[in-house]
């Protein structure tokens, strides 16, 4: 884990963001993102963590302009995101997506050179294309780059394919990348190499990143800050060391408890996350909360609040915060 030295204005911000999708067969709309504030500062790596289905990929797609919010707004470098074709094209040159499945995101009929050059061609790059492609491949750790120009994805290892995907994002010299489960499909031996690459790119290029993951161990190794998401909202956020060594929200505690190095017994959450079209009243985690089920919330005098009183949207940046009635009764760290 490294620490950013830039504490200036956010580069990318979500402010009161909502994304809803129409319900099926007369069901209420699904609140995939249900009020989120989230900032990424220049040179900072933020990990967005949560179970599958919690809304983190929808949030990431809305930050990229791929899904239009139904409420709130996205700003980049202080300017609200516009959704016209020309504005989005200019925005996506500055903010690039790295997908989790390099095999699926690379066209098997395109050479490595064409895969990396595609973004340059879409954006009408008028410089030396060959030099730009070579530079991106080299920065992504594929050296000498010319050795990879005419190769096809099936001729590469999984780690090499992921480096090609990263090179395709770097070739446009973006200011921020959104990496959706960037190492989930890779062998353990390769995961560390890709994470080290992302950290090196931050140091060398000043690149910011939002890393979407279900893996708190990955967040520990790469992020400056972590935002833990549950059922459409951020439920805990703060500097990664503070959140992961002294988690305040019971959901974060449960996620951490299943890591191999975690002390004590794993916390087994009951049931699945609720349907986002039927978000429970009160704390949205209360129907699965081990603290409530174990009687600790009652002893703290907040059991009724857990079931009935909604919690405010957490601030997007700053110190540690948890959306939890029980945590609010305890001494913060």
UniProtKB/TrEMBL annotation:
Entry keyword set: ATP-binding, Nucleotide-binding, Transport
Domain ABC transporter: residue ranges: 12-256
Record's keyword annotation contains Ribonucleoprotein: no
Keyword flag Signal: no
A Pfam family assignment: oligo_HPY
SMART domains on file: AAA
Gene3D superfamilies the record matches: P-loop containing nucleotide triphosphate hydrolases (3.40.50.300)
InterPro entries: AAA+_ATPase (IPR003593), ABC_transp_ATP-bind (IPR050319), ABC_transporter-like_ATP-bd (IPR003439), ABC_transporter-like_CS (IPR017871), Oligopep_ABC_C (IPR013563), P-loop_NTPase (IPR027417)
Example GO molecular function: ATP binding
NCBIfam families listed in its UniProt record: oligo_HPY (TIGR01727)
Protein name listed in UniProt: ABC transporter ATP-binding protein
Species in which this protein is naturally found: Streptomyces chilikensis
């Amino acid at each position: 884990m490294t620490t950013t030295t830039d504490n200036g204005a956010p580069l990318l911000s979500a402010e009161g963001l909502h994304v809803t999708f129409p319900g099926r067969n007369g069901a209420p709309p699904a609140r995939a993102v249900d009020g989120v504030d989230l900032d990424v500062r220049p040179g900072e790596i933020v990990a967005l963590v949560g179970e599958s289905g919690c809304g983190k990929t929808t949030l990431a797609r809305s930050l990229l302009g791929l899904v239009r919010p139904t409420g709130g707004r996205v700003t980049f470098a202080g300017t609200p995101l516009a959704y016209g074709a020309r504005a989005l094209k200019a925005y996506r040159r500055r903010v690039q997506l790295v997908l989790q499945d390099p095999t699926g995101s690379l066209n098997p009929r395109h050479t490595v050179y064409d895969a990396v050059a595609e973004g340059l061609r879409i954006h009408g790059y008028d410089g030396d294309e060959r030099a730009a492609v070579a530079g991106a491949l080299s920065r992504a750790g594929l050296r000498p780059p010319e050795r990879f120009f005419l190769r096809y994805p099936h001729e590469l290892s999984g780690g090499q394919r992921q480096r090609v995907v990263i090179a395709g994002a770097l070739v446009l010299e973006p200011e921020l990348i959104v990496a959706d489960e960037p190492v989930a499909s890779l062998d353990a031996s390769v995961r560390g190499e890709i994470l080290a690459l992302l950290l090196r790119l931050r140091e060398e290029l000043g690149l910011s990143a939002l890393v979407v993951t279900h893996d708190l161990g990955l967040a520990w190794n790469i992020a400056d800050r972590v935002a833990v998401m549950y059922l459409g909202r951020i439920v805990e956020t703060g500097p990664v060391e503070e959140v992961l060594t002294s988690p305040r929200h019971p959901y974060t505690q449960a996620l951490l408890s299943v890591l191999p190095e975690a002390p004590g017994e794993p916390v087994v959450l009951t049931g699945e996350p609720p349907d986002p079209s039927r978000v429970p009243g009160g704390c949205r985690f209360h129907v699965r909360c081990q603290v409530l089920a174990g009687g600790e919330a009652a002893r703290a005098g907040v059991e009724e609040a857990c079931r009935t009183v909604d919690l405010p949207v957490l601030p997007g940046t700053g110190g540690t915060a948890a959306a939890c009635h029980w945590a609010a009764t305890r001494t913060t760290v």
